[in-house]
Amino acid sequence: MSAEFLATLAVFLGLAAIGLPVAFSMMTAAVTYMAISNRDIGLVSEQILNGLFESFVLLAVPLFILAANIMNAGTVSDRLLAFCLALVGRFRGGLAQVNVIASLIFSGMSGSAIADAAGIGKVIIEMMRREDRYPAGFAAAITAASATIGPIIPPSIPMILYALVSDASVGYLFLGGILPGLFMGAMLMVMNVIIAGRRDFARDEAVPLRELPRITVRAIPPLMLPVILLTGIYGGLTTPTEAASIAALYALILAAVVYRKLSLGALYEIIRDAARSSGVVGLIIAGALVFNYIVASENIPAQVANALQGIDISPITFLLLVNLLFLALGCLFDATTMLLIVVPLFLPTCRALGIDLVHFGVVIVVNIMIGLITPPYGVLLFVINALTGIPLKDIIREIWPFLAVLIVALIVLTLVPDIVLWLPRTFGYQG
């Protein structure tokens, strides 16, 4: 690495450490690099504009954010929650199981862990805390853990960002996330059963079976959204970006026309919040595009690949080491930064070792999602703390069993690529 690049890293890490937003830290560092390496500073804006204009798939990000916000604002989440309660609410620790099932279903609509936790997750926490049926820390912990499934099951905003830097197919990445997401959900539900039995949680009031058909019918319209998305993408009818626009429109029609629970004022707030969230993501992407240009100029990916090849590392060993690295980085950095800055460094090595990029992408996204709940700086822990007021120390005390089973799931997904690749290959993937 050159002295210019080391100085750029020092500026980036220094600014981020004192609290400057990551996007602005990256852009300032990029300008510093251009200045001290005697390059045209205008290259910064050129790389940003070229990267954004050439990436049609990035349009899916604000559209999925908008769709998730609309779902949370109307009665859509309430109907899904009633459906989940009818399915598994009757068992010991039933509301905790409802939490996981609701996240599995809502993940097919939002593509965002934070949207999951802030929307349907917040509602379930309030239900679990009512009459002290569950400890507040436990309710928050299972909500945070189950929200990590959101970006694994399609649609997935992190997978779209991974596709941007890797040129992997968004459609096959989405397919590759379905079985891992279900597997993670099953692991969390097993841990729920163990904890509920050990701590003798009360059984929740069962929904009469005769009510199940009516509740299911009420939930069918929102449950159709994942079906519409996946049919459009894998039936060749739409691109992922077009599917995202259909998702936002479908959510709007449900909330405003079918259920009539969305006023113009509420819609304005939803659009404003979605624009703000999209702007944050967009700024990080812009900074990452320039940073990636610098990394490529320094030929760092090739240097990393050559160094790893020189020690004769096996694909499995490489993946396990990457897992350890990303689990550690997940405690410190946000998902977007890791996907756009760190992941490109390892892609040449993946290609050289013959590691499938769809498998690698899903494993990386699972890694990053686990990082969102890893103390001390897991973003989802702070989000739920801010939304509910539950002390952070209580959430951290309860998160460890769920964190452990998710790490076990990650190891299984790493060692058994067929769990990720079976569905993509069924639909014609040749990787």
Give me the secondary-structure topology:
Elements: H1 3-17, H2 22-36, H3 42-53, H4 60-73, H5 76-88, H6 94-110, H7 113-129, H8 136-147, H9 157-166, H10 170-198, H11 212-234, H12 240-258, H13 264-297, H14 300-310, H15 315-329, H16 335-353, H17 357-371, H18 379-388, H19 392-415, H20 418-426
Helix pairs in contact: 1-2, 2-13, 3-13, 4-7, 4-12, 4-13, 5-6, 5-11, 6-7, 6-8, 6-10, 7-8, 7-18, 8-18, 8-19, 9-16, 9-17, 10-17, 10-19, 10-20, 11-12, 13-16, 14-16, 15-17, 15-19, 16-17, 17-19
Task: Describe this entry's structure for a reader.
With 431 residues, this protein is mainly alpha-helical. The protein has one domain (40-426). It contains 20 helices and no strands. It has helices at residues 3-17, 22-36, 42-53, 60-73, 76-88, 94-110, 113-129, 136-147, 157-166, 170-198, 212-234, 240-258, 264-297, 300-310, 315-329, 335-353, 357-371, 379-388, 392-415, 418-426. Helix 4 packs parallel to helix 7 (113-129) and helix 8 (136-147) crosses helix 18. The two termini are 33 Å apart. 50% of the residues are buried.
